[in-house]
Amino acid sequence: MPGEGFHLPSGGLHAPGTALTIDAARGFRRFCHAAGVGSRKIISKELLFKDVRKEDRERLGERAILNQIDWEVSGDVYFLRKSPHIAATVAETQQAGGAEYWILLQHYRFSGKKVVVMPGQRFKSVDKGVYNVLVWRGRGRYDGHEIKAGDFGYDELLVSHAKADRTAVDRKHRR
Amino acid sequence: MPKPTVPLWIENTGAEDLVIIKFFGPDVNLDVPMIPQYKL
Fold it and tell me: What is the domain partition of chain A in residue ranges?
């Protein structure tokens, strides 16, 4: 359904979805590309073993990969019923020009928001720290920077802590 | 907990809705409403 999503816990076999996929990864994440073909191209089997120690690969072979997978998660036939996501409105940021919604509602470390700004309108965006921006649909300006969905040069931004928290910059310049 | 920052303006200059996804790193927003995973 439009606007809905689901959360796949760590250890589950997964692939990019047909809509928007956000793959939250931490520094200790292990990478394993289990598909043999992608975008009609053969994918190197080395990517299957990218984060497997040489001695484990020699000793266990492909069993080293099978041992990394959470089979309870990957084989759960009730997965979609257990983890539906419906975006929650952020009440304190409601404005005439648009709306903001919490997404990623089952992840206890990472967080995300969807912002919808109506044509010809502006939205005042306030957040607590550094974040990535993906322009999913439409075009406009983000703090003066041109943005456009589907254009790889204009559809992503990083709002740094120094940019978002100008009081920190001011303090640095006063020293 | 991180403190609120200064506002940035997002402007829609097109003819359709402008839809943006913001993605935050670990522990930036600790006040997000959570949906507990449904137990069958």
Answer: 4-83, 85-174
